[in-house]
Write a structure and sequence with these properties.
Layout lengths: L2 H5 L2 E3 L1 H23 L2 H7 L20 H17 L3 H17 L7 H13 L10 H6 L1 E7 H21 L3 H4 L5 H6 L15 H23 L4 H18 L6 H8 L6 H11 L4 H4 L3 E5 L5 H11 L1
Parallel strand pairs: 2-3
Antiparallel strand pairs: 1-2
Helix pairs in contact: 2-4, 2-13, 2-14, 4-5, 5-6, 8-11, 11-12, 12-13
């Protein structure tokens, strides 16, 4: 396919809008969770020493003002979700969240690194093109956005899954069933299966191989239209099981379930949003609809995309 022709392809803006809503509210919930569990004080304020990342020793907790960083992150997450002052909000979300993650390397989680990458990527996308407060304020919305915006998010999620699968193709994971053997046998307190199935070697092997196959192939299953409903069922089942069995994994299952919504058809996204916004329909009726969103600095945006990926 001709690259210039592909870059000019358009897609309904509801796909970015539904991703913006899911991502924003999920981040808001994540910050509230960190705050009310007391982890800001426990992880950042109380310790007298923090392990810095190379080149980022200047990023440190700022005493009690560290709460301000997370407050900015929470407010900007909410504003991103509702599409209010979107460009400023997503920049603040990226900066505040990434700053929080760089304060101490011992708090590193790979899915929080993914959040930083996605939020950086979304700075350059018109995710407020429709179903946003900005539409009501500016009295203008866009029906179509560049298709590559949505495809870039899909590619980001595909990379996460595929590389997770490749990383599992080793003797420890597939032959020794480690570390799943350790994790599953420790779940002996679970009703019925904890003291029976989870103590059996073949179950550990099965879970290890199933996890590898899931990660390697789920992206392709989601990309193919005919297998997409089954793929989405697998995503929900796999990540709900992960959340139940390994609660210490945190927000990762919910981030991946929410992110996988981007693979659904634009028509499905639009139907979902229209049902969710039916009570606000009168506010959007006075908005003039512009057919296509066009970038003013296309090349800069595409370079930023390549840098993120």
């Amino acid at each position: 396919m001709n690259i210039a022709k592909y870059l000019n392809k358009k897609q309904d803006s509801s796909s970015l809008a539904i991703f913006r809503l899911g991502f924003g509210f999920l981040m808001l919930f994540s910050i509230i969770r960190i705050w009310f569990n007391g982890w800001i004080k426990e992880l950042y304020i109380d310790p007298s020493f923090h392990f810095s990342y190379y080149g980022f020793d200047w990023i440190k907790p700022i005493g009690d003002y560290t709460y301000l960083i997370f407050l900015i992150c929470a407010i900007s997450s909410f504003c991103v979700a509702i599409g209010y002052k979107y460009r400023i909000s997503i920049i603040l979300l990226f900066l505040s969240f990434t700053y929080a993650e760089l304060m101490d390397k011992t708090t590193y989680l790979n899915h929080y690194y993914l959040v930083s990458l996605i939020s950086f990527l979304m700075i350059f996308f018109p995710a407020n093109a429709s179903f946003s407060i900005d539409n009501i304020i500016n009295k203008k919305s866009y029906r179509l956005i560049p298709k590559w915006n949505v495809d870039a998010l899909k590619l980001m999620i595909c990379i996460v899954y595929f590389y997770a699968g490749i990383a599992k193709i080793n003797t420890d994971w597939l032959i020794e069933a480690q570390p799943l053997k350790i994790w599953l046998t420790s779940k002996y307190d679970l009703p019925i299966i904890g003291n029976t199935l989870f103590q059996m070697d073949w179950v550990h092997i099965f879970f290890s191989w199933a996890g590898m196959f899931y990660d390697v192939f789920i992206a392709f299953i989601l990309l193919y239209r005919r297998t997409r409903p089954f793929g989405f069922f697998l995503v929900i089942t796999f990540h709900i099981m992960t959340a139940i069995l390994f609660p210490a994994i945190g927000m990762f299952p919910y981030i991946m379930i929410t992110s996988s919504i981007i693979f659904l058809e634009p028509e499905t996204h639009k139907k979902i949003l229209e049902k969710c916004f039916k009570f606000f329909k009168k506010f959007f009726q006075k908005i003039s609809i512009v057919e296509v969103y066009n970038y003013k600095r296309t090349k800069i945006t595409q370079v930023a995309l390549l840098f993120s990926l």
